[in-house]
Design goal:
- The complex is a heterodimer of chains A (about 450) and B (about 200).
- Chain A has about 450 residues and is α/β, with parallel strands linked by helices.
- Chain A contains 22 helices and ten strands.
- In chain A, a hairpin with a 4-residue loop joins β5 and β6.
- Chain A starts with a helix and ends with a helix.
- By secondary structure, chain B is an alpha/beta fold.
- In chain B, about 25% of the residues lie in helices and about 25% in strands.
- In chain B, the strands form three sheets. A five-stranded parallel β-sheet of chain B has the order 1-11-6-3-2.
- The longest helix of chain B is centred in the N-terminal third of the chain and has 13 residues.
- The chains are: A alpha/beta (about 450), B alpha/beta (about 200).
- At the A-B interface, α2, α3, α4, α8 and α10 of A face α1, α5, α6, β8 and β9 of B.
- β9 of chain A pairs antiparallel with β8 of chain B, so a sheet runs across the interface.
Amino acid sequence: MEHASLAADFVKNDERAHWHDRSLWFVRSKRDKCAHALPEWELLRETASQIKLHLMSQLDRYLEEFERNATRLGAVVHWASDAAEHNQIVHDILLSHGVRKVVKSKSMLTEECHLNPFLERHGIEVIDTDLGERIVQLRDEGPSHIVMPAIHLKKEEIGELFHEHLGTEAGATDPQYLTEAARQHLREKFLGADAGLTGVNFAVAETGGIVVCTNEGNADLGTSLPRLHIACMGIEKLIPRAADLGVFLRLLARSATGQPITTYSSHFHGPREGGELHIVLVDNGRTDLLGSDEFRRSLNCIRCGACMNTCPVYRRSGGHSYEATVPGPIGSILAPARDAGHYHSLPFACSLCGSCTDVCPVKIDLHHQLLTWRKELALRKLVPWRKRVAMKLAAGVLKRTWLYALAGRFGRAMLRWMPRFLIYHRGNPWGKQRELPPAPKRAFRQLYRQERKRRGQS
Amino acid sequence: MASREHILSAIRKRLPESQPAPSLEQAWTTYADPTQQFADVLHGVGGLCVRCRNLGEVRAHLASVPEFSQGTRICSAVPGISLGNVILEKIDDPHDLADVDYAVLPGEFAVAENAAVWVDGSRVSHQAIYFIAQHVALVVPAAEVVHNLHQAYARLSFPDSGYGVFISGPSKTADIEQSLVIGAHGARSQIVYLVDEMSAN
């Protein structure tokens, strides 16, 4: 389905769409406060971007260095070309350890690979332990945001869900009470797990270590109880030096939720005593992006979600309308790279306002890439015929001054004199849910000419 | 291993033009009073900073903390604070720590800009104690406060710490309608004691 049709469902409930919008703007405002409190914010962004571009230019060497160092520390490093291979590797490790129950902390990569349903089909219980992820898992749906997976839900819905699954009181909606119930429920899961699965926020080539960031403490609890820890990461999560973490950890939480740092930033260098650490390095389309001058920078992404929180389209259409693991501006670049035919509508779910580019902590030129995608999709004839015809018509008008002036005059007159039903109808999506502004009496060019005359310059 | 070669050769074919690594030697923000900055930020993230002259003062303060005084299973892993009835070294399986009410644990140094305390997992027998205890107090030498994360990483050398973690405040979540709830999976409360004199007497 196209983004616009799915978004149409979301905005049907006007009150709820505005509530969603405000929730995310609240997070964006917190981010602003944090960013403005650091005088070196722009320097940090620039430095982070340069580190990532440097990494990309020697990615093969750094991956080998990482593998060497991680192996020396006692970790086992696996390589997976695609999602299927990743899932198979994880399953094989679990199988060889006789694992029945896994606790997982948040990992967008495992979402991307659809690991949960794969393991469940093989009889392994996978429990998402991040509260938001657990909520959407119990609802049998995907996360709608990469940092706040349940941002689309109201506390009444979560109360109902917990009543059904966790036995909380009917009608309970207090976040404190509901969180406590989840804590108790998940404690049991942590204590009963045979293995802990985590994502990776950063992997350090120089040391062979991985860093995982959470606020809840679920990654640490999930890896310090069972003996087996499996960490899954995209190959772009690498950074060259441990000192680079100083730059990225300063940016990550401030950009994501407006916190100075996440509560827990855990550094794993090798397995703990008596334990095992497996690290799965996954390509799944990333090397294709590496080869593209236009889209390479999207590999800089540290998954903070700031571009979603600020995006006027995301805020008003909800994460599920993207139907992609990563929604919002960055998702609208990554998803079509994976399957342009399926995700062709996403680069158009954008007003090109550029706000995402302004907030991105690693300086991805998001709105430029979205525009480039549109061109690319047009070349591949993946744009719907209505849009193609409209663009052709617009191009015909815009390249003829006289026709453009005439069309403007016609439009101004029509907007003023035409009856309402001729302006607000199904064929004019611009008139949906909003009033068009009053048509000006004169064109800008007329006003400009008049003004110049008035000032005596001709 | 076929995939390893496959991925590496795909990367080599697509490597972009070489880019230098940027310098990290910059005039990063420092604070007039880093200890105060640490305390302020910690307060903001739901923790409490208490300045003590010695470990005796830490013990005295702990006695006034209801979560500590009312706890039944208490653990201390800070040399010189022999409190509690759970001895980490005598526990074989970290699962047996599930009922610990309060843990008093060592922290290596504190970071002013974000109220993080660096914890070295190798200082205790079970790193799980930092997350599984209901409430946690970290004891950090008051002299060990750095201004920012860059200084923090300059101090650290990996893999000396096989497992290490920056902890900034108690565990928290805002996954239900952005309402902040303290006490997600880890500690429900956190006190950081900055102590001038760490010797045991």
